[in-house]
Design goal:
The complex is a heterodimer of chains A (111) and B (114). Chain A has 111 residues and is mostly beta strands. The N and C termini of chain A lie far apart (41 Å). In chain A, strands 2, 4, 5, 9, 10 and 11 form a 6-stranded mixed beta sheet that branches. In chain A, strands 1-3-8-7-6 form a 5-stranded antiparallel beta sheet, with no helix packed on it. In chain A, β7 and β8 form a beta hairpin. Chain B has 114 residues and is mainly beta. Helices cover 0% and strands 53% of the residues of chain B. Chain B is globular. Chains A and B meet through β4, β5, β9 and β10 of A and β4, β5 and β10 of B.
């Protein structure tokens, strides 16, 4: 059965810290790994990764996929209180494209 | 704002009842996905439609059904509701129907079954 596992499940840091969120996946006919941020409402899209070893960056956030290890990481540097949210990782296949989500990592950034 | 709209925002109903949730995808998107988010199960894929046709099915209960209309909006019908159906229901849309592409989520419908 397809599965996505995230770690840690929760994390508390202080502003300015750098954090690394982990995601491992087992998805049949895997095509892409997606990261979303959820703040008490709808998940908002962050990154989609399809190629191994190529880093995607957006401001202080970056992510990379390792297809050999079936894993991905999301890095957030110089964290701010506005980064507090649940970060969701999802694996997608090359069929219809349904997403299999992990449990999420709840990040809390303290001032 | 993702461009995906969902109505209603909140729905409170009694066990045994039937409800319909509505979703309009982003302009130009042909695929609509329905997901259920509950505290114990997380975000779970229910069903996908692409250009009016069912494309993929997840662990969707037989009491639940969906359709996508010619104008590409979609409806999720939930019947014989049980307390355990209380959850946040999200619709997402993407441009294509095959392979995984960015999916953009609507604001969700919070369903409470009493």
């Amino acid at each position: 059965e397809d599965k996505v596992v995230q770690s840690p499940l929760s994390l508390v840091v202080h502003e300015g810290d750098t954090v690394t969120l982990n995601c491992s996946y087992e998805v049949t006919n895997f095509r892409s790994l997606l990261w979303y941020k959820q703040e008490k409402k709808a998940p908002t899209f962050l990154f989609m990764l399809t190629s191994s070893g190529i880093e995607k960056k957006s401001g202080r956030l970056s992510s990379i996929l390792d297809k050999k290890e079936l894993s991905s990481i999301l890095n957030i540097t110089a964290t701010q209180t506005g980064d507090s949210a649940i970060y969701l990782c999802a694996g997608g296949d090359n069929q219809g494209g349904k997403l299999i989500f992990g449990q999420g990592t709840e990040l809390s950034v303290k001032p | 704002d993702s461009g995906v709209t969902q109505t209603p925002k909140h729905l409170i109903t009694a066990t045994g009842q039937r409800v319909t949730l509505r979703c309009s995808p982003r302009s130009g998107d042909l695929s609509v996905y329905w997901y259920q988010q509950s505290l114990d199960q997380g975000l779970q894929f229910l069903i996908q439609y692409y250009n009016g046709e069912e494309r993929a099915k997840g662990n969707i209960l037989e009491r639940f059904s969906a359709q996508q209309f010619p104008d590409l909006h979609s409806e999720l019908n939930l019947s014989s509701l049980e307390l355990g159906d209380s959850a946040l229901y999200f619709c997402a849309s993407s441009r294509w129907g095959a392979g995984t592409y960015e999916q953009y989520f609507g604001p969700g419908t919070r369903l409470t079954v009493t």
